[in-house]
Amino acid sequence: MNGVLVIDKPEDWTSHDVVAKCRKILKTHKIGHTGTLDPFATGVLLLLVGKATRLAQFLGKYEKEYVAEITFGFETDTGDKTGKIKENTRSDGFRLDAKKIQKVLSEFLGEIEQIPPMFSAKKIKGKKLYELARKQIEIERKPVKIKIYEIELLEIKEKSIAVRIVCSSGTYVRTLAEDIGRKLGIGAHLSALRRIRVGKFDLSRAVTLEKLEEALSQNQPNDFLLPMNECLSDFPQIVLDDFGVKRAKNGAILKLNTKEDFADGQFVCMLDAQKNLVAIGEISSGVIQPKIVLG
């Protein structure tokens, strides 16, 4: 059982909880995820099963798409609805103005810098920030560059807005929510988050844990297991003959017999005649060196 599972993560489950549940459902320990979702968030969580776990290094940089609810009136110590209110950030008597919000949102488009929140899994000097935050220890964090490709105002309510965000990997949406509030001069926090896409994998391809369990009870778990090729569809593909497949499986170098122009250091998918993924290879001086053998 090898491939990619697109899970629709339920609320109040950690990403680790989802992995543990899928290991139990599929009766395999070889499952990993490509990026976490906070427990209160829902939506697309990519899991790699079997040999596909070896592809994780190539999948962590996919862009993400979210629908977020930002509630105004106060900030919290976690930046989201699960935290304690920061009393000095309370805002009263405000009115949300669509034009002003649109203008502020547009200021976040493109490459920006974010300071990682203390309540995050980011490590500094070997320590996870959230472990320090729980001890009420705050340390200096350097800003990191992220990119906001799209940010769209979907709805305005009395004290909250809904926005759609397309962003680079590594973006903290709760930090974005706080920063939007600060630009508006109103305390704000992230009150709901749903990830609707990771790379090309969106909710239309996602399965709930209940549906996955039901499929297994009917002995059809592969109904939701996507082939390994799919998660690397943006990589060039090279189809090997039987001799090439044999060499690739042994990790041996192959000559690059193609008219396509490949750059040194470029990764390619090495496929057999049936388009099964045999290996991930790296181009170097006209040859392909298998780096990760899967076949």
What would your notes on this structure say?
This protein has 295 residues and is of the alpha+beta class. It has 3 domains: 3-60 and 201-229, Pseudouridine synthase, CATH 3.30.2350.10; 64-198, Pseudouridine synthase, CATH 3.30.2350; 235-293, PUA domain (Archaeosine Trna-guanine Transglycosylase, Chain: A, domain 4, Roll). The chain has 7 helices and 16 strands. The protein has helices spanning 15-26, 56-59, 98-106, 129-134, 173-184, 209-217, 242-249; strands at 3-9, 31-33, 42-49, 64-72, 110-114, 123-124, 127-128, 144-156, 160-167, 188-198, 201-202, 237-239, 254-255, 267-271, 277-284, 287-293. The longest helix has 12 residues, at 15-26. The radius of gyration is 22 Å and the shape is elongated.
CATH topology of the largest domain, anyone? Pseudouridine synthase
Strand content: 25-35%
Helical percentage: 10-25%
CATH architecture of the largest domain: 2-Layer Sandwich
CATH superfamily of the largest domain: Pseudouridine synthase
Number of helices: 7
Largest sheet: 9 strands, mixed
CATH class of the largest domain: Alpha Beta
Structural class: alpha+beta
- What is the helix/strand order? EHEEHEHEEEHEEHEEHEHEEEE
Mean pLDDT: 90
How do the helices and strands line up, and which of them pair or pack?
Layout (H helix, E strand, L loop, with lengths): L2 E7 L5 H12 L4 E3 L8 E8 L6 H4 L4 E9 L25 H9 L3 E5 L8 E2 L2 E2 H6 L9 E13 L3 E8 L5 H12 L3 E11 L2 E2 L6 H9 L19 E3 L2 H8 L4 E2 L11 E5 L5 E8 L2 E7 L2
Parallel strand pairs: 3-10, 12-14
Antiparallel strand pairs: 1-3, 2-3, 4-9, 4-10, 5-8, 6-7, 8-9, 10-11, 13-16, 14-15, 15-16
Helix pairs in contact: 1-6
